[in-house]
Amino acid sequence: MIQVKDLTFSYTGSPPYVLNQLNLEIPDGAYVSIVGENGCGKSTLMRLILKFLKPTSGQILSSAKRIGYVPQKNSASEDGFPITVFEMMDSYRKLL
To answer: Which of 7, 40, 72, 89: disulfide with 36, CB 3.0–4.6 Å?
Structure first.
């Protein structure tokens, strides 16, 4: 299960916040789509869940050893969303 509790994030550490007091619970085995307008924080949320960014405040708890990400477009990797191949492979190294 992934639990997001009162998650707040800002790239500068102060307002304006990209995410502000977000709460979310994803049960084990669930498939989730994150949809929204451009610039609403979807990529930032993914980076936080994958631990590539640290929250300004709040918690992200996970009972999973690995979290999978399935891109929907090949062009997504060209703009850096949400991670590079190097970052993905580096995360596997950290699990071992």
So the answer is: 40
